[in-house]
Every structure is written in structure tokens, then in C-alpha cells.
Amino acid sequence: MRVAIADDEQELLGQFSSVVTRAGHEIETFRNGSDLLNALKRETYDVILLDWNMPGKTGIEVLEWASDNLTPMPPFILITSRHEEGDIVRGLEAGAVDYIIKPESDEVIRARINAAGRRTTDSSPARFANFGVYELDRTEMSIKKGDERIKLTGKEFELADLFFSNLDRPMSRGYIFSRVWGGHVDLETRTIDVHISGLQIELCAQP
């Protein structure tokens, strides 16, 4: 998964970052709400951990912006020392899917991140998936259109699976690199264009 973490407390930012990386996920960190909001305008994340009180934009302000501007809205976990019932209700009504009250153990943080991530990713997808006239075989890494089997490279299949599985979800270039190339965003920008072009030719060439 690709996880964004926003917290202005360095110690807590380090704790959350360590939990996410040990769980095998990619992270991007922010020290204020304004920088996170700007990133959300151009990037895609599977889970976002968001501190309530931050400089620039507060967690609630970021949530309200995301609710109005991101469709579908990614899962946000609100991080805060506030524990009153009214505060929890306010955070959830603003758009958060979960709530972590500081301090919290690494095990609970990891479990909550993984639970939120299941809303946008499927860690154990079925072997076969049908999308209109296309059938994906994830074991054989192949696609059929009717009776015709479409020949794809490994990366082309991964791209096709990613695109078909996220038809209702916009994805940034950085997110696509992260999911298909393992976060090696230093690859040439043209790499993804070449693979997408090849994928389009193969899919559209079939009757």
C-alpha cells in the first residue's frame, strides 16, 4: 500500500513511519496540513494518517476538503489526543474512517492501517476477474477477450489488472509506479507511457 502520514510531532511521525515501513508499505510524510492537502491534489494514497492539530491546515480542514474534492475519498485515520465523545463524532462525521488516540501501541496502529487499507486494496484477489468482455487470470497473468487470449508482458498485465480493478478511482502517475514498479519512481517518465501504449494496442487489437 501507499500510505501518507501527516503529523507535526517528529517523534510520533517517526513512530508511525516505522510501523508502516515494517509492515512493508511505502510512505510519504508531511509536517503540516497544507503540504498534505497540496499532495492530495496530485497524488494517490491507499491510506492517510492525519493529525488533528497541525500548522497550515488542521486535520479536520483537510478532511473537509477531501470530502468535497476527492471521489472516491481515500480512507483517513485521524490521529489525536482528543478522546471526548464529541470530538470522536466530529472527526468521523468530517470523513475519517477510524480514530487513533495518542499514545497508541505499534500493534494497534498497524492493525488499524491494514483494516483501513482493505477498503481500497485487495490483498488476496481471486484468480479470475471479469470486466465486461475481458477475463483476467491472475495466476497465468493473461487476459481473454471472448475466445481470444491476449498476449501481454508481465508489466502490461500488472497495469491492466491495476486499471481494471480501479475503474472508479483516479490514480496518479506516482501511485501507478509504486504499485507496478515497486516504488522505483526514478525510472524514466516515458517507461509508463510505453507500457500503457503497448497495453492499449494489445487490448484494442482483438476482435
Can you give a write-up of this model?
The mean pLDDT is 84. Helices cover 44% and strands 19% of the residues. Helix 2 (33-40) packs parallel to helix 3 (59-69) and helix 6 packs across helix 8 (189-205). The strands form 2 sheets. Strands 2-1-3-4-5 form a 5-stranded parallel beta sheet, sandwiched between helices. With 207 residues, the protein is α/β, with parallel strands linked by helices. It starts with a strand and ends with a helix. It has helices spanning 10-22, 33-40, 59-69, 85-94, 106-117, 154-165, 173-181, 189-205, and strands spanning 2-6, 26-30, 47-51, 76-80, 98-101, 128-131, 134-137, 142-145, 148-150. It has 8 helices and 9 strands.
